[in-house]
Design a protein that fits this description.
The structure is a homodimer. Chain A is an alpha/beta fold. Chain A contains twelve helices and twelve strands. Chain A folds into three domains: 52 residues, Orthogonal Bundle (434 Repressor (Amino-terminal Domain)), CATH 1.10.260.40; 131 residues, Rossmann fold (3-Layer(aba) Sandwich), CATH 3.40.50.2300; 128 residues, Response regulator (Rossmann fold, 3-Layer(aba) Sandwich), CATH 3.40.50.2300. β2 of chain A pairs antiparallel with β2 of chain B. Chain B binds a DNA duplex through α2 and α4.
Amino acid sequence: MEQKRKATIVDVAKLAGVSVATVSRVVNANYPVKEETRQKVKKAIEELDYVPNVQARELNTQRSSTIGVVVPGLYNMFFAQVIDGIEDYVRQDQYSLLLNCAKNDPKQEMRCITALVARNVSGIIVISPNTAHIKEEFYTQLVRRTPLVFINAYHYIPDVSYVGNDEALGTQEALRHLMGLGHERILFVRGVNSDSYQIKEDTFRVRGIDPDAYIVNIGEGNSVETVDDTMQTLMSVLPETDATAVFCCNDLMGVGTINAANALGIRVPQELSIMGFDNIALSRYVSPKLTTMDQNMFRLGSNAAQLLIEKIETGQSKRITLDNTLVERESTGPAPKK
Amino acid sequence: MEQKRKATIVDVAKLAGVSVATVSRVVNANYPVKEETRQKVKKAIEELDYVPNVQARELNTQRSSTIGVVVPGLYNMFFAQVIDGIEDYVRQDQYSLLLNCAKNDPKQEMRCITALVARNVSGIIVISPNTAHIKEEFYTQLVRRTPLVFINAYHYIPDVSYVGNDEALGTQEALRHLMGLGHERILFVRGVNSDSYQIKEDTFRVRGIDPDAYIVNIGEGNSVETVDDTMQTLMSVLPETDATAVFCCNDLMGVGTINAANALGIRVPQELSIMGFDNIALSRYVSPKLTTMDQNMFRLGSNAAQLLIEKIETGQSKRITLDNTLVERESTGPAPKK
DNA sequence: CTGTTAGCGCCTTCAG
DNA sequence: CTGAAGGCGCTAACAG
């Protein structure tokens, strides 16, 4: 079946026997129109099933009601929830989301952003921008023409708004929780290649005892394989360590560690305490339920949206840092007695 | 800091000392341009950091390179993965995704769709459309102006393309798997209010023995509470039943059942086999790993995207039905001997 | 090969 | 209160 040609404002005007200006006025309700003509126009709109063309409107008014979001990917619940938060906030302001996946590829990320700019979005939110592999100039150029907000970024660029978590503080809090339970020897599980892991490790080193002996790197920390990879690694590490607790840089690793402990017959938390980080949905579905630090992904998203809209309207940029809060569940408990 | 006014094609033309037509030609590379002038234009573009305005272009050419996606929400990994599939396919064809959440609300779904139409998208994909609570006329009207694809829908509307799974067949296959392992008394766990559960139950009834005694409804089947709700319900059901296997309508229920079994000290799969449905990421992270039927969410998405583009280009609609395939993991095994 | 020009659909002064 | 007309940025004939 062929598509019906969409009715335009001219069609409506013609049918209603008025000028396009009048139609525009009743559609936007921004200028007085005699009730009687208003009704005529309404009827014509109804009849033709007329929907105003937003593209044309925005071209004309030089505004745009869509915002762009660039995300590494959707395979990961973390990002999905952040987007959920963005969508939720932005919808109230009648904005729409243009979504692009960067696939963890700097080149792709730049392409996404350029495409968004071409689409004339009124602003862009980038989740976990690949600042390490994209030259700063790209962003500084970008920000001169489009408001920009970064979520979870580790390099600061002028005139960009930021929202993120204080992961160092969160890590401290997590370690304090563990130490408060009497744990002295804590294993630190991290992945490869991410500022986030490094920040946490730095924090760990300051407080830890002989840190080098207690750090294990399980490789890629954010893929579908992470849980299994962690489990494999920990299956060989756990029997050899004298640690009574494990701190994991994210929940995937946390769950992998739980699985390893289960497989080895180590009781959690009686014999071993395990902490994750992030509080993704997964963490509350496993058993025992994982104690973790909440990265409040949803708030990350809604705050970013708020910042972006603020920036669009006022031109002001700012940084918001959220606190990670402890979510105490079943995987941590008092250190076993010697 | 204030935004730089975006350079337009006129600015470029002026700077390069040529006409706008020439600039357009080098940008689109669709008509011959002398190499020398081409270079001049290129330089001007570079200098002004010119990016063509897609809105204007599309307004002019009457085409659109964005497609709309309406999804119930992102909280659920299922939908996120479907979108991932859509994005992946669509990107190759240079389309962009306009994303809207319907929040499981029919009103909201209609609003989303109208907004997308206004934005002049070239087509729309709706995931799990709320066909039960939206009058068919809305869709038939819609499809007259915009190509439409439904993912996982249960009511057929003319000229809409569909992609979905054969859930009846998948259920049969799942039950056959269980029966092949010697299970005769199978518990059927479902949620409330979804065609999907009903289709599965109907299939179960045909094959089951005294089905009424073996059906349990755990309430809302697709929320963050589902795992816990299922666990609670099954904690009281499991000790009273003589079933040796449990078929769950989705993986959240499957995991809830596993948790219940674990908590009750029932060994899985030695004493009880448990099957899920969907194969969301969660199912491979729990222990024991959940045996399930794959709904291949990613393929659902990419196929929908393909169908939509086909429909946009040819006007033809069609239906694709994918097969659920068995993913055998650790939660099912031979029925215990009497 | 290149420039001129007429719209795409809409909003918004500016005159009635 | 209403209509006529210009223009948003770009493309696509149509002339040169």
